[in-house]
Amino acid sequence: MLGFADERMGRPMRLVYPSRKQRQKLEAWLGLCCEVYNAALDERKSAYRMAGVSLSYEHQCAELPACKQVCPALNEVPSQVLQDVVKRVDRAFDDFFRRVEQGHKPGYPRFKSRFRYDSLTFKQYGNSFNILPASKKNKATLVLAKLGHVKMVMHRAIKGTPKTAIVKRTPTGKWFVSISVEMEGEDIISKRLPVSEEAVGIDVGLKTFAYLSWGKRLPIRAFLRAEEAALARAGRKLSKAPQGSKQRAKKRKVVARVHERIGNRRKNFIEQEVRHLVKQFGLLAVEALVVRNMVKNPKLAKSIADASWSMFFTRLQAKAEEAGRQVVRVNPAYTSQTCSACGHRQQMPLSVRIYECSQCGLVIHRDHNGSLNILSDGLQAVGRHSRVIPEAPGL
């Protein structure tokens, strides 16, 4: 099993402390890689527009030695890092054509600003990068080609065989490394938890972050709302700073720190809740929500984005697979409008928070009722339970 070196997939991001000269070198590499990315993108666009030719990754990689002769500064950048820059352009076009075939919004590849190109990929362990474990005298060290030894915070031991390392610069000026590893089957099985027959239905919302089918509520944490005043204050100071000045650069970093604080708190909250759920339940039933469509609602967009349902579902799926648990996605239609006791369906506006069944007299919280229906549909999907709910006419 190959782990993905991607923060969104929850791979551990290890903090590194490059020296001042190393930081300057990394910054210079990012600038050169950004130029190579834009040049490769421009070459592909021009070749197709002028000659109708689609350039390949192999063709553009073969041009890199000639590029180094034209721009000697590229010799300072490791070859494999430059090859990955060309690979990113190739992936951008592959994703573009895939979205066109699937009928999604295409999103044609665009040129990158030097402020938005913030990562370098070292793709061969033992060649372009290495890891020296901590000893009694020295801390853990990351060894990068043409850069040297960089101090690294090894907050957990690396299990498996390292494959690639992505060195990333955050908007606040911090440096992290994300290491993907290849794990053997025994290592994967060792991470799995004891078998659990318990199941739970999870109904996410905006009044409470999630309502569990056994009655527990997970409180909503509006991290963005809590920091809106600090964010607005920092934004006003940034807008008043002169363009291109050192003062503006400092104010921009202040705004980035506020956003980083919001993201860290949100991620910490979701990681803790996901850990508790995966540890306790063997089957987790959730709604198959299309969040990207829901945020188009102008009245609820900020609250939905602040709740981070997509991050929650992604982390829940990833952690459940790692622990040997099962996540079932069910159709979210009418889960809150259907009685969890008798199956009667009745229309309810979102403002009504208590479900009162006109058929069997059940009185229950709307979200609790929805979580019970989600659990029932999830159990039915895996063959552990079956319940037929008649459809009400006119709904």
TrEMBL record:
The keyword Metal-binding applies. GO terms for molecular function: DNA binding; metal ion binding. Keywords: DNA recombination, DNA-binding, Metal-binding, Transposition, Zinc. Residues 309-374 form the Cas12f1-like TNB domain. Residues 179-297 form the Probable transposase IS891/IS1136/IS1341 domain. The keyword Oxidoreductase does not apply. Transmembrane segments: none annotated. InterPro entries: Cas12f1-like_TNB (IPR010095), RNA-guided_DNA_endo/Transpos (IPR051399), Transposase (IPR001959), Transposase_put_HTH (IPR021027). Residues 16-49 form the Transposase putative helix-turn-helix domain. One of its GO terms (biological process) is DNA recombination. In the N-terminal section; belongs to the transposase 2 family. In the C-terminal section; belongs to the transposase 35 family. This is Putative transposase IS891/IS1136/IS1341 family.
